[in-house]
Specification:
By secondary structure, this protein is an alpha+beta fold. It has a single domain, classed as Gcn5-related N-acetyltransferase (GNAT) (Aminopeptidase), CATH 3.40.630. It is about 30% helix and about 20% strand. The protein has six helices and eight strands. Helix 2 crosses helix 3.
Length: about 230
């Protein structure tokens, strides 16, 4: 669900404009202080339009920006009931996937934290997504959201991706905190959030369903990193 452009501009005014985009600069080298599992290689530049080509690389995954040609493979994933478990339901029309791709690509172009396509190393296939969402129902918050093809479950892959995205949020984007919105019965996603250092902060009603808000602050992340 999209939040308004006004809300996004209020939260990331520097990232919305190329002249002020130096805050988005990402070093072209591994970030040495990151956790072992998510040694991320950053490929980006200062201008927001250049972040359309940014990638995060972990030991087993490439997280890359979405492209228009990803619609067909994502439409298959969004039509998969297991992939869409604990959602509002599968996508039944291609235009729903087109809207998703256009939304996240629009965030990329604006320099707003966005979603990544999850691609296993050595494979030419998108198996899910992991990255940032923005919801009008929780204004001011940035969610780390993720989904993975069921054939790739139980390998720790989405945990690896989520940790990389978390490290990117705090090490480079300098976000003060991130959350994950999870249905109480969604045990796998809850475990991912917990392995990502998050704890339950409260329970809310989100899109008509009870939802647990998992959260971690940048200060907590720094403390955990320094202690390890």
């Amino acid at each position: 669900m999209q939040c308004s452009e006004l809300l996004l501009r209020a939260r990331w005014p520097d990232l919305m404009y190329p002249a002020a985009a130096r805050v988005a600069r990402i070093p072209l080298r591994p970030f040495a202080s990151l956790t072992k599992e998510s040694k991320i290689i950053y490929i980006a530049a200062a201008a927001p339009e250049a972040t359309e080509h940014m990638e995060l690389a972990t030991e087993r995954l490439i997280l890359r920006r979405f492209r228009e040609e990803d619609v067909d493979v994502m439409a298959q994933l969004f039509a998969n009931p297991d992939f869409m478990r604990f959602s509002l339901g599968v996508f039944t029309e291609r235009k729903q996937t087109v809207a998703f791709i256009e939304k996240v690509m629009g965030w990329d172009r604006a320099g707003i934290p966005s979603q990544f396509a999850v691609v296993p190393r050595g494979e030419d296939a998108i198996v899910g997504y992991c990255g940032f969402f923005h919801h009008a129902e929780v204004p001011g918050e940035v969610e780390i959201g993720y989904r993975l093809h069921p054939d790739y479950w139980n390998r720790g892959l989405i945990t690896e991706a989520a940790r990389a995205v978390r490290d990117h949020a705090f090490a480079d984007l300098k976000l003060p905190r991130v959350i994950s919105l999870i249905h109480p019965e969604n045990s796998p996603s809850r475990r991912v959030a917990e392995k990502n250092g998050m704890t339950v902060e409260k329970e809310i009603i989100f899109c008509g369903f009870p939802t647990q808000v998992y959260a971690i602050t940048r200060d907590e992340w720094l403390a955990n990193r320094d202690a390890s």
